């Protein structure tokens, strides 16, 4: 246990290892002030690790913000990322299928064992939201209820409906392809440690360009499954002034794909009265976010927690089961 100082307050940090397949250890980090608070699971997106929730900016960070607000916060790393072992290398072949069917179920089960009988709230950033929704669709019997999901800059299908959008998307693809030539993995930048396996990058590219949303290995139809099961109440944050990633347009397409559910969409930007015109990353890492739109997230999460306390809900204690294709 470590002490984490944030905005003149003290929080606690715990670190766990989650074993997967006998050869992988995933990092699960816990940040809290109140160990009895409602559990919240955070998952970073493409070319990000859990450090995106603990940015090196004074007074910033989604994880410490929620922990200071009374929630029991857990940041999950997929295999090879962050403090997971072993680190990604040119021999790493796992992709999004393994993240959905192995890594995330292991994290969910670990969290359910750390906080038995407590429901969970899930928050994703970018691809992290897509993976959480896919896992929710595929897990036929979760160990505890999911009260709600929040999404930052989420979207799956990338509709290239303008020349500027097409040009930026093409440039983005070539950039990560070139950066993967020498290290065997996709890098955010030449000197930055955050990486993705080539398999994950290929899987993500296919999901972005195909209207169908199917598993890259066994063809499981995630769109059909999530519409049959129904999404839990969800809160979406998107950017008004972006062209490619995290846009309002992408969020609307994503909400439509997930089917009918309790969805609230908030567009961020100065035109909407926010303090900044955020990017997909800065909407989480900026210190201004803690005084800008994070309070709206906190209120929504508290609303979801209150709904659990005031309604007699079933509390399953069985392990999840994965649906097959």
Descriptive tags:
325 residues, globular, two-stranded antiparallel ribbon
Textual characterization of the structure:
The chain has one domain: Alpha/Beta hydrolase fold, catalytic domain (Rossmann fold, 3-Layer(aba) Sandwich). It is globular. It has about 325 residues and is an alpha/beta fold. About 35% of the residues lie in helices and about 20% in strands. The protein starts with a strand and ends in a 15-residue tail after the last helix. The protein has nine helices and eleven strands.
How would you concisely characterize the structure shown here?
With 325 residues, the chain is an alpha/beta fold.
What's the SSE blueprint?
Layout lengths: L1 E5 L2 E12 L3 E9 L6 E5 L18 H7 L3 E5 L19 H19 L5 E6 L1 H12 L7 E7 L10 H21 L1 E3 L7 E3 H12 L12 H8 L4 E6 L8 H11 L4 E6 L13 H4 L8 H17 L15
Parallel strand pairs: 4-5, 4-6, 6-7, 7-10, 10-11
Antiparallel strand pairs: 1-2, 2-3, 3-5, 8-9
Helix pairs in contact: 2-3, 3-6
Number of strands: 11
How many strands, which pairing sense, and closed or not: the largest β-sheet?
A: 9 strands, mixed
**Global Rg:** 19 Å
**What do the pLDDT scores average to?**
89
Number of helices: 9
Q: How many domains?
A: 1
* Outline: globular
CATH architecture: 3-Layer(aba) Sandwich
Helix content: 25-40%
Unreliable stretches, pLDDT < 50, 5 or more residues? Answer: 314-320
Proportion in β-strands: 15-25%
CATH superfamily: Alpha/Beta hydrolase fold, catalytic domain
> Which CATH class is shown?
Alpha Beta
- Placed side by side, the strands forming the largest sheet appear as 1-2-3-5-4-6-7-10-11
Structural class: alpha/beta
CATH topology: Rossmann fold
The helix/strand order is: EEEEHEHEHEHEEHHEHEHH
